[in-house]
Amino acid sequence: MNSEKQRIILWSVAISIVLLVVKFYSYVLTGSNAILTDALESIVNVVASFFALYSIRLSAVPRDRNHPYGHGKIEFFSAGIEGTLIIVAGIFILYQSLNSMLFPQPLMELPLGMVLIGFSGVVNGVLGFVLQKKGKELNSITLEADGKHISTDAISSFVLIFGIAIIYFTGWNVLDSIISALFAFYIVYNGYFLVRKSVAGLMDESNPKSINKAVRILNKHRQKNWIDIHNMRVQQYGGDSHIDLHLTLPYYYDLVQGHDCVHEVEEVLEENLPGNIEVFVHADPCIPDPCCHYCQVVNCPVRKFPLSRKIEWTAENMSQNQKHYHELGHLNINLQKKK
């Protein structure tokens, strides 16, 4: 998997370097500040792709004593670096735009410049699509971040062509700086969200997509003796995940039966989630009242109360640090009376 990630990002590096040369050549021909904006962002593409390559290689290093969860979080750091570079580039582009408004320069060879920028936009569009698709398949935030950035670059190139065409046919050269300034704000906006996603991953912020995916898998393979699952946490380490959860089992199970159930839950998650999955399961014994009311074990030898209803597993109730009996309103009333 990591070899495929490295091969994809190497292609990204090579293509980004070629397009960087094409865009700067286009700027030299035209003298357009808007095209310079696009070229400067391509420098960020190249630097970010190199750092992405480094982070993917480092994330592939096996866990060791100093990094018991592996090196996967470097991918979040990589995405943060890329987002920061995008923001810096956007600020510099804004400065350059304001400077050009005060000191305008003549524009030349705009049709040829549009052709070159159009070519780079098509190539970036295809590359960005492939990177985002592979990033989702391989569960790599680095590939996704790089793909999103390059796709943004492709969109900006096509908008840029439209803007340059207006300048060419109207002769309003001041639009060159205005378009460049608008691109700068758009670039900063996208960079912010990359940094935000990076910080969320480094801070182990709950990821609804990861949790919902795990919940769907557990619901699909749910066994009747898995009375409930709660206190579930999903932590991402780049393309890998670490999952903690509490599994409630019949209290009369011996150690071997309990171990087998725990192993079943681990296998279900490890075999159906992308990347390397590490699962830690804490086994809890059931409590006859109230667990009997939603326990689906057939012919339970110690059942004290009939099954009332099946409780649906959701990301919300499986993430809470309590068994699911609190969802049965009438049981809460009974429990309060007993207290």
Automatic annotation (TrEMBL):
<keyword id="KW-0472">Membrane</keyword>
<dbReference type="GO" id="GO:0015093">
    <property type="term" value="F:ferrous iron transmembrane transporter activity"/>
</dbReference>
<keyword id="KW-0813">Transport</keyword>
<feature type="transmembrane region" description="Helical">
    <location>
        <begin position="9"/>
        <end position="28"/>
    </location>
</feature>
<dbReference type="InterPro" id="IPR027470">
    <property type="entry name" value="Cation_efflux_CTD"/>
</dbReference>
<protein>
    <submittedName>
        <fullName>Cation transporter</fullName>
    </submittedName>
</protein>
<feature type="transmembrane region" description="Helical">
    <location>
        <begin position="110"/>
        <end position="131"/>
    </location>
</feature>
<feature type="transmembrane region" description="Helical">
    <location>
        <begin position="76"/>
        <end position="98"/>
    </location>
</feature>
<dbReference type="InterPro" id="IPR058533">
    <property type="entry name" value="Cation_efflux_TM"/>
</dbReference>
<dbReference type="InterPro" id="IPR036837">
    <property type="entry name" value="Cation_efflux_CTD_sf"/>
</dbReference>
<dbReference type="GO" id="GO:0015341">
    <property type="term" value="F:zinc efflux antiporter activity"/>
</dbReference>
<comment type="similarity">
    <text>Belongs to the cation diffusion facilitator (CDF) transporter (TC 2.A.4) family.</text>
</comment>
<dbReference type="GO" id="GO:0005886">
    <property type="term" value="C:plasma membrane"/>
</dbReference>
<feature type="transmembrane region" description="Helical">
    <location>
        <begin position="34"/>
        <end position="56"/>
    </location>
</feature>
<feature type="domain" description="Cation efflux protein transmembrane">
    <location>
        <begin position="10"/>
        <end position="203"/>
    </location>
</feature>
<dbReference type="Pfam" id="PF16916">
    <property type="entry name" value="ZT_dimer"/>
</dbReference>
<dbReference type="InterPro" id="IPR050291">
    <property type="entry name" value="CDF_Transporter"/>
</dbReference>
<dbReference type="InterPro" id="IPR002524">
    <property type="entry name" value="Cation_efflux"/>
</dbReference>
<feature type="transmembrane region" description="Helical">
    <location>
        <begin position="152"/>
        <end position="171"/>
    </location>
</feature>
<feature type="transmembrane region" description="Helical">
    <location>
        <begin position="177"/>
        <end position="195"/>
    </location>
</feature>
<dbReference type="Pfam" id="PF01545">
    <property type="entry name" value="Cation_efflux"/>
</dbReference>
<keyword id="KW-0812">Transmembrane</keyword>
<dbReference type="InterPro" id="IPR027469">
    <property type="entry name" value="Cation_efflux_TMD_sf"/>
</dbReference>
<dbReference type="GO" id="GO:0015086">
    <property type="term" value="F:cadmium ion transmembrane transporter activity"/>
</dbReference>
<feature type="domain" description="Cation efflux protein cytoplasmic">
    <location>
        <begin position="211"/>
        <end position="286"/>
    </location>
</feature>
<keyword id="KW-1133">Transmembrane helix</keyword>
<dbReference type="GO" id="GO:0006882">
    <property type="term" value="P:intracellular zinc ion homeostasis"/>
</dbReference>
